[in-house]
Amino acid sequence: MPEPAFEANVRTRRFNYTEVQPHFINPCCFGEDFAAWLAAELAPLAARGFEISEPIQEDYGWGLWVARAKTRIWIALSSLQDGTEDEEAPTSPPTEGEWVVTVAQDYGLNPLRRLFGGRDAAAAKLVATAVRTALEGASDITVSPAGGER
């Protein structure tokens, strides 16, 4: 995966971060409602030729594909909750859910596609800006640089 067009830590109580659902691949797969919310926030991109997938569960959380022509952009919502309770070392439950949100173009495994197709930096920047705007525009979501101070 190439360098992300956008990456940030996100903290909020808005989305489920404590109740493990029966359909989760792993107990840490929080973010289903977050991904659905983000897909709805990105819906205006359709007017600019983008298609937005339904949320997709991954072993680390959830994600969305945003595509236009040959360009495919993956938005990953990586949950930082572990979804398990350690009975030997009880801790107070977290007061907010936390995710790393990453937006990056995906070129797949085909080396020719890397060279000749799907390289649309403007599309990736547009999607990254839309994601950042949605996150920063929500008063109950805190956004900070990924890997930075909290």
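Next protein, fold it too.
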Amino acid sequence: MNKNLIILIILFFTLNLKSQNNNIEPGITLGTSYYLGDINHSRQFYSPGLAYGLAVRHSFNDYYAVRLNILKAKITGNDADFSNIYQQTRGYSFTNNIIEVGLQTEFNFSDFNSNIRKSNAPFITGGLAVAVSNSFSDYTIAIPIGIGYKYSPSKKITISAEWVFRITASDKMDLLLPNDANLKQITKANNNDWYSVAGITVTYNLKNDKKWCPAYQKPRK
């Protein structure tokens, strides 16, 4: 196992232990991932791969929360899946595994407090992440932007479904080089790749009582 991944796992469990004394909810994420770039220009949920990881959420009040994600996602692409003549001639395919560490904020459109009652709320999310790929040889900054819906069936559990695009600063997610041996361009310049993850996150509140900051909202009885 890569030593960087071991460090991330240790960090996660350290936060897990601290969550017993703070308003922190550890959990897991499971979903599907796909890629947008020089092979797949616009097809949503093209060649979906497995995405999974760990999450830790901290809720400031009924409307705002921040979440730490440690996520692994698989993306693939194949020119043969598209009718474009150039792509059929190029005949390129790839598989890449991404490990992402990032922070996302969540803004709920309605008040959400799972410790008081059963709650549900749509939300938008955005943040900043570092994505490492190609066996840890490449890394890039990514900006997650997406939408979601969260539901709390009990005072301890929150289930969130979300669809989040990752805008990257890299044109190497598909492992395409700028030129071939004959200096023929095979990838579009200044056209950075994206990857997206749609999935479910389940978190568990280890703290007995949630206490919101009084500057925002008083707890409900």
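About the second fold: Residues 36 and 43 are 8 Å apart (CA to CA).
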